[in-house]
Please model this.
Amino acid sequence: MSDTVPSVPGPADDPEVARLRAEAEAAEAELRLARARADLAAAEAAAAKARAAAAGDAGDATVAEPTPVADPAPAGAPAPAPAPAAEAPAPTVPLTDAQVATVAAGYAGTGAALDLGVLVNGGPVASVPVRIPLAMTNRHGLVAGATGTGKTRTLQLLAEQLSANGVPVFAADIKGDLSGVAAPGASSEKLLARTSALGQAWTPRAYPTEFYALGDDAASGIPVRATVSGFGPLLLSRVLGLNATQESSLGLVFHYADEKGLALVDLSDLRAVLTFLTSDEGKSELKDLGGLSGATAGVILRELVAFSAAGADSFFGEPELDVTAFLRTTAEGEGVVSLLEVPNVASRPELYSTFLMYLLAELYEVLPEVGDLDKPKLVFFFDEAHLLFREASKAFLSAITQTVRLIRSKGVGVFFVTQTPKDVPGDVLAQLGSRVQHALRAFTPDDAAALRASVRTYPASGYDLERVLQELGTGEAIVTVMDERGTPTPVAWTRLFAPRASMSPIPAADLAAAVSASPLFAQYGTPIDRESAREILAARMQAATYAREAAERAKQAAADEAAYAKQQAAIEKAHADAQKKAQREYDRLLKGTAGPRARSSAPTTPLDDVLGRGATKTILTGVIRGLFGTGRRR
Model:
């Protein structure tokens, strides 16, 4: 056997091997850089801790309290037990150098990214940034935390950076705080001290913003309306609070309206269809489809009346907003931030949350499949997300889960903003690639259980998360996202950057001016009322009324004609009978005349001989007229 090995091309001859080697060397260099940064950060933290300790010792020596002198104990009394030393709270154990290096490597991507902030390890480590790859923002996300922990500012920070990277943003402005994104932020000593400590090169700036409002409140934003047909039976059942049976019946009504070409534009159209289907004329329309219970229709009608009384009529109508308006960018390539102003959401939470779900479903319907993009076409922030899932039916939850799962392929990322992860169902939570968790509170047993449940959803880390999540300061969060390869990054205690736009609402006059200056206002500002189901059914019922009245008139005319014909027949029969009777009488009179006599050339009767020919004719004519009742009246 020969020991000669067949000649194969060396690594230098294979370009693929050369490429892989270059990538490996680059990754190794990046890891070494990350470790060096981590070592530097750890050294800086240790030096800062030492300086703080030295300053503390000096301070203690300067302001040392005099030792109190105890009263002498009585003779023979046992010596008092020494007082236990006060147990100082154990500080949160920072990450080791190796763990810091792991965090640094996990967030050290090469592509475009959103800079959330920097790692906290005893203090901010400016050399270890925490970032979300821009391409991963369509893998959805969660921003959670107790009230006052900074969720809204995190939402604003993400929206600003998405806009700067050319990604349009849609968000609901619950409290009006986000409207400040349209104005540059105000500098302050406190703000600059925070940003410089984080290594953030902060400068104030505004971002292109479009304001929208539910209904006809043109002072707050461009009206966002939907047709009842577009809203659909599932979402409408949600806002009306219908049960499963009523929801099914409402779906049947929508199906009928669609089949018959009855456009359901506003709530009055739906009421008109329901009223028609429960009328004598319309009851048979749904017979082949199972029919519509009068009791069920009555419940739906009552709920629609109450819904309208609460002001919901203004939300339904035309022109219906084209949701692709949310995907606009400026001439400079910046994404437009679309803000839905809903300051009074507490008065109709189900309508707000369901309307946002409608907008998301519309986006899914109209956008084409695009797969994974370098950056999303839109990022949709769903604030107060717990309102969407609260008391939701199984069908509604299934629709949400399906939409969130599939809309990623349309280039849309969805971020849910709420207080705790437990507000989001598990099937939806499992699809969220980015997590920004602000502080959680554990004041009640339910809070403690929610805290433990939240901790279990995170990957293993060097933190005692159950403790850290309660110690986070305002503007700090526990973060884990998807890296550029689609794998979860290490859990990082993060101090977040400050937004560059104003963190206060803009004046109402400025907002109104921005709305009136928008090119969309001319298109959507004025409602229109075209022919729809209400008018079509009214015309149909009026035509049916006319047809019914015409049929009744024709029937009456036929009856009158029949009665007249019957009367005429009776008259003709009476005539015939009278003629026969007259003829018999005439014949009798002729027979009763005696004796032959000379006849003139004209035929005569015996009466002519007695009374004269003219008199006889007059008598017979009178008899006949008397029999027929046609005698002349003088």
The first strand starts at residue 113 and ends at 120. The chain is about 45% helix and 10% strand. Residues 234-307 form one domain.
